[in-house]
C-alpha cells in the first residue's frame, strides 16, 4: 500500500503552523510560528494582529515544512487546512494559502475542523480503537466527544460559559500571570494546596455539561476581598484550589461518561490537555475502573496539545480515506461545529 503524505496548515488563532504527516500517524515535519509575544501586552489575542502575523510567515513556513520533511510538492497527496472554528481573519490566511497551493499544484484539498484536529493529536501517539471517547479541553472549548469512527463525532457534553482554558487565562490575569496563563497556573498549583475550596459547578447534574464561570467569579471575589482588607493570599494555594476545582469536575463527568458509553479508547486533546494535574488524575481514575470497562488511554505529547498543524494532518488522513475532499469554494467558518 502506498504511503499517504499530507501537507497541513493551521492558523485559527495565534500560532501559524505547517506540517507534513505520513499515513496520519507519523510527523515528518512540524513548524509552529508562535505570536504569543505580540499579544501578551494586550492580555489576549488581538484578531487583526494575528492575521497580519499569519500572512507574514505562511509562505516561508510552507517551504520549511517541505524542506524539513525532505519532500517536494510531487510527494504530497493532499493539502489540509483548518477552516474553523476560530478567528475568521486568521482562518482565512491558512485557507487562502492552502487553496492557492492546491490550485497551483492540482493536489486535492481537505478542510479540517480544528476540534477534530485537537482530538486526532492522539492518533500521532498511538492507534485509536473505536468507539472512542475524548475530553477536548482548550482555550475556546470544553467538551466530551464520542467518536463512532475516525470521522463521525458526537458531542455529548459541552461548556455552558467560559471554556477551561479561558478560565485559566482569566484567573491567571488576576494573579498577574502573562497570557496564556494555563501553564504557569498549572506549575503553581503543584506547589500549593486546595485551601480555598472553590465551588464545583454542576458536578452532580445528570448530564455531561460544564460551567466554569461560577468558579472564576468565586476566585476573583476572593482576591478582591483580600485586596480590600489588605490581606496577602498565597498564590500557590490559590492556583492549587482553582485547579482542584477544574479537575474534580472534568474527571467526575468524564469518568461517568466512560461508564455509560464504554469506549475502547479514551483520548484527551486541546491546550488544557497539557495540564499535568489533569493528565495524572485521568490516568489514575481510569486505572481504578474495573478491567472489563477500562479503555486504553492516549494522552497526546505535550507539544501536540496546543495548536499545531500536525494534528490537522492526522485528522485529514482520516478524511482522505473516507473520500471527504473539499473544493476551491472552501471558506473559513469561524463558528464551525463538529
Ligand atoms: O488548544 P489551544 O492551544 O487553543 C485553543 O484552541 O483554544 O489552548 C490554549 C489554552 C490556553 O487557554 C492556555 O492557557 C491553556 O490552553 N493551557 C493550559 C496549559 N497549557 C496551556 N491550561 C492548563 N494547564 C496547562 N498546562
Ligand atoms: Zn486549539
UniProtKB/TrEMBL annotation:
GO terms for biological process: tRNA threonylcarbamoyladenosine modification. Required for the formation of a threonylcarbamoyl group on adenosine at position 37 (t(6)A37) in tRNAs that read codons beginning with adenine. Is involved in the transfer of the threonylcarbamoyl moiety of threonylcarbamoyl-AMP (TC-AMP) to the N6 group of A37, together with TsaE and TsaB. TsaD likely plays a direct catalytic role in this reaction. This is tRNA N6-adenosine threonylcarbamoyltransferase. Substrate binds at residues 136-140, 169, 182, 186, 275. Belongs to the KAE1 / TsaD family. The keyword Transferase applies. Fe cation binds at residues 114, 118, 307. Keywords: Acyltransferase, Cytoplasm, Iron, Metal-binding, Transferase, tRNA processing. The gene is tsaD.
